[in-house]
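F.,

This is the one I mentioned.
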């Protein structure tokens, strides 16, 4: 114990003295340090400023486009179109970039349909949205659109008459093709090998649904024919501007199998379909317009601009753009007469007459006039351009003043000849030297024809 007390009593021998580092003064923040930080931050600040400035300017342009559309009375979409969920939309702009018509824009950080009159409802915007903020609908609260009633197998209320694709409410390329394939499967089951007509099935339209249906007819060994009012296949896609078409999932085609496409241009897609037609010898009659359908016993009599067909079943795979409205004047059947502008560059160096008084006519004339060595005239039967966007009217006034476009108001086409067009104007008859005529007088929707046949419709007011 004594020893223990001695040990305990000697704290100095066992105590641990804490180590204290020598005092170092804090580093002083110098001017050179600040300069170094600014050198690194300055490029980032410039990039951020340019980004947000560009975004602001783009928002202002889109807001102005929306305002102009409403002011011109063009705020109501005429076909399948997107609506946006503002809670899901983060304003990434992916849908704006995906739209080949330039119908969409960002306003106050959210996506909007700023140019409804040019929207054709192909669905590239919906497919491109990573947050599922877009859905495609027909009609609005103010303007209803008629959609045919079809069964799950795509048969209408008239037995043997089927509808697939855009007319039935599906503008997406992939889904339209799938509907065409499924509809042909249903037709095969419907006719059950009966051969009491010239054709087992007549397919009207050579778009995605019509092509897929035609391939299905070959696969099922059916007697078929495809009639197409245009001079090329592709349906609505054929009228896309030169831009990208988004396809986010594989397309399953009869005979061909699964086609994997993630992003493909219009030209490449049409080339692909033309390749399929060549390999499969798909039977398509171009420039043949359907004029009437009549029930005939256990089938149908279909009259077209090229003749008459007897078919056990009919598949309507047509779009909602309708048949182009014609002038019904001599010479309109000439190859130089077209009804839509696809590519202004193809008319470079030519004498072009554009007919119409809407935005599509003005925009076509302006686009062609921008090509070198072109001579452009714009004919309209009215005395003024009414329901057009102010910007288009302003651009037309400038083009007219500079002599790039000749505007012929209160004029009507009398006759179209290979080298000229004769017009009746207030000042008398005009003989206009001409290479190309573009008629932008709108379209005649097939709704009335189908209602005459007896197909039942329902009116959509902004619903899927």
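My design for it:
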């Amino acid at each position: 114990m004594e020893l223990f007390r001695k040990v305990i009593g000697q704290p100095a021998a066992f105590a641990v003295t804490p180590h204290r580092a020598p005092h170092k003064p804090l580093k002083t923040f110098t001017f050179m340090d600040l300069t170094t930080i600014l050198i690194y931050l300055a490029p980032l600040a410039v990039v951020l400023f340019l980004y947000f400035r560009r975004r602001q300017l783009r928002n202002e342009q889109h807001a102005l486009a929306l305002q102009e559309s409403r002011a011109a009375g063009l705020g109501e979409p005429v076909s399948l179109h997107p609506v946006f969920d503002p809670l899901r939309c983060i304003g990434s702009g992916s849908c704006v970039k995906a739209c080949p018509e330039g119908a969409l824009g960002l306003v106050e950080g959210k996506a909007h349909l700023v140019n409804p009159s040019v929207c054709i409802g192909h669905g590239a915007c919906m497919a491109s949205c990573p947050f599922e903020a877009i859905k495609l609908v027909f009609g609005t609260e103010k303007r209803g659109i008629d959609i045919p009633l079809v069964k799950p197998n795509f048969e209408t209320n008239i037995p043997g008459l089927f509808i697939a694709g855009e007319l039935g409410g599906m503008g997406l390329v992939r889904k339209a093709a799938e509907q065409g394939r499924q509809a042909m499967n249903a037709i095969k089951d419907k006719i059950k090998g009966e051969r009491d007509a010239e054709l087992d099935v007549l397919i009207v339209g050579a778009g995605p649904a019509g092509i897929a249906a035609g391939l299905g007819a070959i696969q099922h060994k059916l007697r078929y024919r495809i009639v197409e009012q245009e001079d090329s296949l592709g349906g609505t896609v054929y009228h896309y501007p030169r831009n990208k078409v988004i396809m986010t999932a594989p397309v399953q085609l009869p005979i061909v199998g699964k086609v994997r496409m993630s992003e493909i241009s219009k030209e490449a897609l049409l080339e692909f379909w033309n390749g399929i037609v060549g390999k499969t010898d798909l039977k398509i009659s171009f420039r043949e317009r359907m004029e009437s359908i009549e029930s005939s016993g256990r089938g149908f009599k279909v009259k077209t601009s090229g003749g008459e067909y007897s078919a056990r079943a009919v598949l309507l795979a047509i779009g909602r753009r309708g048949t182009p409205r014609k002038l019904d004047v001599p010479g309109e059947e000439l190859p130089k007469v077209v009804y839509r502008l696809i590519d202004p560059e193809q008319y470079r160096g030519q004498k072009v007459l554009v007919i119409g008084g809407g935005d599509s006519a003005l925009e076509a004339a302006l686009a062609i006039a921008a090509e070198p060595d072109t001579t452009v005239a714009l004919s309209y039967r009215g005395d003024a351009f009414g329901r057009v966007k102010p910007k288009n009217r302003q651009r037309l006034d400038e083009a007219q003043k500079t002599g790039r476009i000749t505007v012929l108001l209160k004029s009507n086409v009398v006759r179209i000849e290979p080298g000229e067009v004769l017009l009746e104007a207030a000042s008398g008859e005009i003989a206009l030297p001409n290479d190309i005529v573009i008629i932008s007088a709108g379209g005649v929707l097939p709704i009335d024809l189908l209602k005459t046949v007896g197909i039942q419709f329902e009116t959509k007011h902004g619903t899927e």
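The longest helix spans residues 31-71.

Talk soon.
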